[in-house]
Amino acid sequence: MRQNKQEQNPPVVREYTIGDTKYIVKASVKEGATEDAATKIRRLIRNDIGKQDAQKNGA
Questions:
Q1: Where are the alpha helices (DSSP H) in 9-36?
Q2: Which residues in 29-50 are b (16+ Cβ under 10 Å) and which e?
Q3: Partner of 59 for a Cys bridge, out of 18, 45, 53, 54, CB 3.0 to 4.6 A?
Q4: In the predicted model, is pLDDT for residue 3 greater than 70?
Q5: Does residue 1 carry a pLDDT above 70?
Q6: What is the pTM of this model?
Q7: Hey, what's the torsion of the CAs at 56, 57, 58, 59, to 10 degrees?
Q8: What residue ranges do the domains of the chain occupy?
Q9: What are phi and psi of 13, to 5 degrees?
Q10: What is the pLDDT of residues 10-44, one digit of tens each?
């Protein structure tokens, strides 16, 4: 039986703490990905901050 790349290479897991929030990131390589890991983490953090701001403002 043939294994794909993700089965052969386990994901890398890292923890980042920014302020009072801990982010646990599981990284794996995907064929055809359009953004690198740093760009994706930046986007996720910005989205999370936007959600928090919306909740504070009652939206």
A1: none
A2: eeeeeeeeeeeebeeeeeeeee
A3: 54
A4: no
A5: no
A6: 0.46
A7: -110
A8: 5-56
A9: -115, 130
A10: 788 999 999 999 999 888 877 788 888 889 889 99
